């Protein structure tokens, strides 16, 4: 008799015809300069670096690399704009500019989605349906806060801080820019933003929109470059506040660098989230949640559900269904609307993921990968899961930032809570069960900032996001997201 | 008839609900400003601090899962106990060099501060919680949770109100704490431990060490099982050490400089918030 977990249930003979998103309406310049004081300026040393499409390794554009002198110019512009214009502006008027940015992004949403996918490798389905809509929603949400800050902090008055230096990662390039810019601007601060060096393009398109929105010059400055540029920004004495999203390693470096300077900072760092499946969960939904949890955005997600804990009694069923479901994932051209899993963001990241798979194998884990065909050009990694791993394995402890899931089992609630919390990280977690009481018990006991019950990887501008422990400090999103950008007096 | 000799108090540390001497066997001779009394104060060591962190960590889950009402009553009880022992604190504060008037004021403020935070214990959650109107079919809410084990360097000048002002908000929020008492005015900090001990505060929730700030500061800042550090003072070099070492495990460094703890501005619920984390939970809406 066939069991419900038979592979033939999900595996079909259907052939998907290519369904590529059109790119003929997309304008990408050959060269992008620095966006400082409302203008596009040549970098002091006229140095440029290439940004490529990780799905085919083709160059998309040259991008200006900002050095110390350029950082200085940007910070000076931001300071002037802060003191002369932005901090003095009627908050309601400030809000209108931010609303305008939100609207302009909505109008040009498809263009942004396509460029985000070309520059970063994520599936168009995600950039089109998740990233870009959330970007405009984020600006829209915080725009409304600009003239309502007196209601946000009972008993205190919120004052802007000054110039914020913001450094963002490559996994959600424009969304992270929005998470940083929107609350900073709403609270009256000005900004120097540095996108990640592998994904600078949508931020430069955003610079165009900021011009189009007539934002006063210098309120938002966008400069590109690698870690050196970021470092120059962090160390610049004219910066009052750092906002960083990226690795825990760099986050710690930033903490050390600004120690004793009086600079404020918020950090959104790494994670190794536990996704916990209890035996009384709706198993098929849970399997979808596991897939979303780890394979969303190729696993390039700090809050990814990269540690799966399945209750022993259902482990066999869940793992077998999970493997079946992995078989159906379409890996390939990120611009194809059918694609589930796009390209790995860079060669460096691909190498890191492969290294961790080797580590997992060497430590005795059993690997399973879907049998999908990977394109020849570009950077790709098949959806991967490991069983036969335990708490001490490096692939269980360390953040991989790729489509690699470590699966463990458990028997009791207390056991899984202990295991889930056995990590220096504390960004997110998932709980799957049909019992409401169990959801509250477990989600309260998990030491992490975002808990998803019977769902995973959901985001909203009104929902605070950020970690406990080594996953960072401060929150982005929601009312909590205002606090990192104000002094309370 | 011979004159009766007083019994002198031995000042010890307060770790895990017990009053041990420092494991190091070291002491600091403390002499009051008028040169009338000398006592031996424990010179706490790194090992004492580590033991205290172990106690604080094991007390954490019990303390943070107590009901807010219960925590509120325990904070109130500390205030009651302090009120009842005011004459002892008067003596010690004056021995530490305060005038009678100043000592009285400091005790009054300290008691009132405990009552102030006792009242917050079951209210800050309401002030700092939200239901977030997400644009998806989910019930989404955020609420504050304690960050965990906190280490604290108490204010040097105001040894009773200073200690109370930083310990109270930390434990009101459900954290546990290891605090280094004022180095120059240690007496009433240790006596405050006796107040805590008779106030239904579970052992390990508050641990009090004495010793040299210069020796212990780095350990308070660098311990890998401490989630936040509260530093009181305005020494720039010390602040730098605290903030630098905090990076080791992304500890939350909270610095209180130039605070007048005797003023009402030395208390507000945002001081509770400083050692809290926001947790956000998503729950689907549907059938």
Helix tally of chain A?
14
Architecture of the largest domain in chain A, CATH level 2?
A: 3-Layer(aba) Sandwich
Instruction: Give the strand order, joined by hyphens, for the main sheet of chain A.
Output: 14-15-16-13-12-17-18
- DSSP strand (E) fraction of chain A? 15-25%
**What quaternary form is this?**
heterodimer
CATH topology of chain B: Aldehyde Dehydrogenase, Chain A, domain 1
- Largest sheet properties of chain A: 7 strands, mixed
Task: Give the helices and strands of chain B as they follow along the chain.
Answer: EEHHHHHEEEHEHEHEHEHE
By CATH reckoning, the class of chain B would read Alpha Beta
Output the strand order for the largest sheet of chain B.
Answer: 7-6-5-8-9
Number of strands of chain A: 20
Q: What is the CA-atom radius of gyration of chain A, in angstroms? A: 22 Å
Report on the structure:
The complex is a heterodimer of chains A (489) and B (287). Chain A is an alpha/beta fold and 489 residues long. Chain A has 2 domains: 31-269 and 468-488, Aldehyde Dehydrogenase, Chain A, domain 1 (3-Layer(aba) Sandwich); 271-453, Aldehyde Dehydrogenase, Chain A, domain 2 (3-Layer(aba) Sandwich), CATH 3.40.309. Chain A contains 14 helices and 20 strands. Chain A has helices spanning 68-86, 91-107, 109-120, 124-143, 173-186, 201-212, 227-235, 248-258, 283-295, 312-327, 347-362, 394-397, 413-421, 436-445; strands spanning 31-32, 34-36, 39-41, 48-53, 58-64, 158-160, 163-167, 190-194, 220-222, 241-245, 264-268, 274-277, 307-311, 366-369, 384-387, 404-410, 428-432, 450-453, 472-473, 486-488. Chain A has a 7-stranded mixed sheet, with helices on both faces. Chain A has a 6-stranded mixed sheet with strand order 9-8-7-10-11-19, sandwiched between helices. A 3-stranded mixed sheet of chain A has the order 1-5-4, covered by helices on one side. The longest helix of chain A is centred in the first third of the chain and has 20 residues, at 124-143. Chain B is α/β, with parallel strands linked by helices and 287 residues long. Chain B has a single domain, classed as Aldehyde Dehydrogenase, Chain A, domain 1 (3-Layer(aba) Sandwich). Chain B is built from 10 helices and 10 strands. Chain B has a 5-stranded parallel sheet with strand order 7-6-5-8-9, with helices on both faces. In chain B, β6 (176-180), α7 and β7 form a beta-alpha-beta unit. The termini of chain B are far apart. The chains are: A alpha/beta (489), B alpha/beta (287). β18 (450-453) of chain A pairs parallel with β10 of chain B.
